[in-house]
Amino acid sequence: MNAGGSKKAKARSLSDESGAVAVIFALALVPLLIVAGGAIDYTAAMYEKSVLQNAADAGVLAGATTARNAVGASDASWKQASASSSASVFQTNLSSRIRSDVVSQATSFSLGATTIDGALTISAQVPTSFLKLIGIKQINIAATSSASVSTKKFTDIHLVVDTSNSMGIGATVADQTALYNQTGCQVACHYNGGASHPDDLAVARSIGVTLRLDVVKQALTKALASLPTDGTTRVAVYSLGNTLTTTFPLSADIPGAINAVNALDLAQANAQGGTNIGYSLQQLASQLQTAGSGVAATSPSGVLILATDAIEDETIIYQSGGSNSWVADPNFVVNPVSVLDGSGFHFQTLNPANCQSVKDKGYNVFTLEVAYIIPRPVDSWYNTRLDFIRNTLLPTQVPDAMSQCASSPNQYLHAETSADIVTAMTRLIPANSGLRLTR
Question: Is residue 239 pLDDT above 80, yes or no?
Answer without folding.
Answer: yes
